Structures are given as structure tokens and as C-alpha cells.
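Team,

Forwarding the record for the chain on the shared tracking sheet. I've put the sequence and predicted structure together so nobody has to dig through attachments.
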Amino acid sequence: MINEFNEIFHPDRFFGPSSEIIDIARELYSNVKDLPIVSPHGHVDPKLLALNQPFPDPTELFLIPDHYIFRMLYSQGIRLEDLGIPTIDGTPVETDHKKIWKIFAENFHLFLGTPTGIWLTHELNDVFGITERLNSKNAIEIYNLIEKKLNEPDMLPRNLFDRFNIEVLSTTDSASDDLEYHKMIKESDWNGRVIPTFRPDAVVNIDKPEWKEEIQKLARSVKTQINNFSDFIEALKARRKFFIEMGAVATDHGVQSGYTHELEKSEVESIFNKAIDGKATAEDTNAFVAHMLIEFARMSLEDGLVMQIHAGANRNHNNIIADKFGSDKGCDIPGRSDFTNGLKELLNKFGNKPHLTIIVFTLDETTYSRELAPLAGHYPALKIGPAWWFHDSIEGMTRYRERITETAGFYNTVGFNDDTRAFLSIPARHDVARRVDSNFVAGLVVRHIITFEEGQKIMKDLTYNLVKKAYKL
């Protein structure tokens, strides 16, 4: 078992290909591997750390909330119902969690070579001490071992937070969220730093059926009526102020396109009124979102919140799955992005302001060297976010560094974020990033592009300092 594990979880994993690069990467990594984790963007439910209760069983912990896992299983013809994924209408799904775990174990080979497989292997070993690959033969034995360990005091969420050496963890919260669980954490005797992030997508996407309900939630949160666009803007400003009081340092905007355009006051008021009446079109929605990105940048310039733009995701591509199981079920697909033209108006208005920080993430890797690196290599306000899902992999992170470094350098990037709902995977994801960056920097040292001492400084900055600076933490 030990020999098998040394092969699947090698101490020099992800380093290479030459022995010279491996030696330098190993040393660079050794200097940063134990630095605190700063997680500036993610989706861990703050309730987990507020209540600090034992985790549920292995299936509920690993599989059911993680669309990285069940999307792969679904791609091989395994029904989501058979994996226990809850349906919107309450249609029965499999409830035998050991049976579900066995399906997962029998198909673990599907994850070989993927970041999910790497993270899972890391979690099973580092958190639970499991030293063999999950498969159909050991499935129930490993399930029982994990279930037993989950009831130990050391496995409580706050204890793991401390064990993982997490310095700060950001969650993602809707504009109208009362941040109840953040309040509980702040008022507790635990000193873990968990902060909210302001995500207003639900009140900006005026084409969604639930939009009017979301506007009513926003109105209730500020204890006033929202009858027009001016009311809407004031409500958003009030909520941002509340989030800042609760520790927020950033906003987050999930948009399909990076297109920005400021409308005339009469135009945006007209679109907002049409939305109130339920008559907004797709064209209205695109124009409204483009305008709101300008508005949010203006607000960030005023209140200091870092602005994150996650662009390029075609959400809920599979209508059948979205209709039956809801959003965030593994069927968000990348689309093309145009940042050179799309961001031009936003950057011409605010991109020259050095005190503003706009971080752009993309699912379109073709934009790295052609658009984002040149833009971030010029505009003081713009920074390039790390490789985002589908690209937060060994090869994806490597391509990211290869395509942006020569033009934007290291210092127009912002470190790494894990963007995860799976709390136990956070150390694994950060470890992958630290190893991949060590390997890339080692390659520069070997080719005498930078010195080893410069490489050491760069690695500490990539791992810890840049994220602290960018998010003002």
C-alpha cells in the first residue's frame, strides 16, 4: 500500500521534465508550501463554520455538493438521480449513500489525469490518512473509515480551518443576504477570519423569472421601497456599506460577456421600468448588465471594494438538467470573450485610476496573450485573475503563466483562489497552484531568465503577498 501511494502521490508531483527543473522547483516549493492560505474568492457556506457541527457522511460531504464530480459521472451516462442529487420538484432520488459512494468508487478511474482526481487523492490522504486509490473493492471500507473520522473532534470545521492554516476565507453572498452566519462567527469566541463578498447578480439579471422577487428581497434588506432605478442604486450602495461593515473587501460579478457600456439616464430608467413590468427583452438585459458594470466600478472607486468580473460562462447550458435540478449542476460551459472592445469603455472611464482594482477572470484562454495580458500590462486598475474552473488544472495553470507573463509580468496578477464549495479541497487546490508555479519559475531559473533568489521572491509573492495586496487584506 505504501509503495502504491508513493507512486500516486509522489512528493515531486507536477515538477519537471528535467532533473534540473525538478531540483529547483522542489526547493522553491519547500519555501512556500507552508505559507498561510488566503482564499479571496470561494463558495463555502458560512453556516458550516458558524455552527461548527460535524460533517455529514462521505457521500454528502464529497459527492452531492461537488459538480466537478457528478458532471463527470453524468458524462458517462450515470443519472444524477442515482447519485442523490436533489431535484427541484422533489422527485425521489437515491438516498442510500453507501450505494452512491460505491458508484463513485467504481468510476474513480474517470478522474485520473484531472484536477478533481488530484484534489480527491490529496484530501483522502492528507485529511483522512487513506493511502490507496479508491476503487470498487475498497469503497465501503474507505467509506466507513471516513465516516468514523468525521465524528472525531479534530474534524470539526473550525479545527480543520486552523489545521489547514487558512488566514482568511471569503464567501460569496447575495446582495440581500442578512449575513446571519457571518454575524455568528464574528460574535463567537473563535478567531478564524471569514468574510463575505458582495454578489449582486440576482438583482442585475433582469431577464430571470425570479428577478422581481429578488428586488423585493433587496428592498426589504434596506427597509425601503424600490420603485425606480435611482432607488435601486441607493439600495445597492447601502448594502455594500453593510457588507464592508461585516468585513467584505470585494464584489463579484458573474457575466456571460465582458461588454461594458454606459447608458443615458433615460435609457437605463426605461429598461428598469420595463423589467418591473415584466417586459424586458434579452437585448434590454445585455444593455442593463453592461451599464451596471460601469455603475459598480464607479461604486468601487467610491467605497474601495475590489471589483471581480467573472466573464465567459454560458450558464446552465443543459436545459434538461437546469429545469430538473437547478443551477450549478456542472453544465456551465465556456464561451468566447472580447475584452479589448468589451472593456474599453469601462477602462477609459476608470482604468487609469491606480486606487481602483478590477480583477478579470476568463474561461476563454485564447484571450490571455491576445487581450488580457496587454490590457493588464497597461491599465493601472486592471489585474488578471488566476486560471478559473476548467483551467484550474496543472496544464491550465501552466498555460496561464506561459501566455501572460512576458507581457503582463507576475505583478499584474493576484495570486491564486480556489473558487470552491468543497471546504476540504481548499488545501489541495492551493497546493497544486504552489507546485505548478514553482515548476514554472524553476524553468525561468534554469534558462537564466531570472536568478534563483529572484525566483524565491516571486514565489512568495505569487503564493501570499500578491493576493494580500490586491484584495487589501
